[in-house]
Amino acid sequence: MNALGRTSALALLISITILALDGTVNTTLFVQMGAKALLCCPALPKTKAILIAWEIAPRGQPPCRISYRVDTKEINETNCTDKRITWAFTPDQYLDILINTVALGHDGLYSCEILTLQGNFLKSHDLHVLVPPAVTLLPGENRTAVCEAIAGKPAAQIFWTPDGNHVTKQESHSNGTVTVRSTYPWEQNNVSAVFCFVSHPTGNQTLSMELNQGITSMLHSLLTILYVKLSLLGIILLILGFVFFQKRNYFRI
User: Fold this and answer.
1) Closest CA to 110 of 43, 51, 42, 178
2) How far apart are CA 150 and CA 177, in angstroms?
3) 214: which residues sit within 8 A by CB, 6+ positions away?
4) What region, left, alpha or beta, does residue 101 occupy, with left being phi > 0 and alpha being psi -120 to 50 degrees?
5) Domain 134-211 class?
6) Which fold has domain 3-130?
7) How many whole angstroms separate alpha carbon 84 and alpha carbon 216?
């Protein structure tokens, strides 16, 4: 396998292939955003091919068609503007196409059809782009801990240790990503720390937090405010004392 093949194989996290009754090969691919993806045509001897056509249909966008005529070596493109989608090499060597940097907009259906004298052969790839979420764990209001998996695709799952009566909500975004927010109350005095476990196809993460962090932070803020107020009071008293003594010396004179 060449370097391109190894890179693309690493990019494809999950690949599910189904052979239909009519000989059509359907493949479901899950690729992480930012990786490379190599999409292949049906495995046929190139000498039998007359025309190779790629139909690219990103979800929610107009389709694009790339075709290659073997006898004249002519390439035609219709409504194709994404420069990140190219032939893997040249059509006379390889019929596959390459997505150099997978983005959310590449989510969709990619079909390669080969026309031969013996019939037509089709292979379709249902490409799903995976987006890793940004994960945070912070103190919340009213003695709670809040764990967030921000803008992931698909939606992440959040679990807590120790298990408790947590509340989890999802917020869907226009680009297809989902933010998951889970709030964990910690009224129990015997619990000193919590662990937030975020499960996602791009990788799992575990964050922990000591439950007295919120109280310590609040006490620190209160002490800071008190210190500032006492400092201002001391300055005011110093000024008043100076004015008092100045007036006293004036009346003596």
Assistant:
1) 42
2) 8
3) 139, 140, 143
4) beta
5) mainly beta
6) Immunoglobulin-like (2.60.40)
7) 51
Question: What's the length of the chain?
Answer: 253
| Amino acid at the residue 49 | A
The kind and range of the H/E element at 76 are strand 74-78
Q: Which two tokens stand for residue 224?
A: 């800071």
Within 140-226, strands assigned E span 144-152, 157-161, 167-172, 178-185, 193-199, 205-210
What DSSP state is assigned to residue 93?
Answer: T
Rounded CA-CA distance 186/196 in Å is 13
What are 93-137's pLDDT values in tens digits?
A: 778 999 999 999 999 999 999 998 888 889 999 999 999 999 999
For residues 57 and 109, the answer to whether their CB atoms sit within 8 Å is yes
Q: What are 125-153's pLDDT values in tens digits?
A: 999 999 999 999 999 888 889 999 999 99
Tokens representing 44 are 């046929």
Question: For residues 33 and 131, is the Cβ–Cβ distance under 8 A?
Answer: yes
DSSP 200: -
* Contact (Cβ atoms closer than 8 angstroms) between residue 96 and residue 41: yes
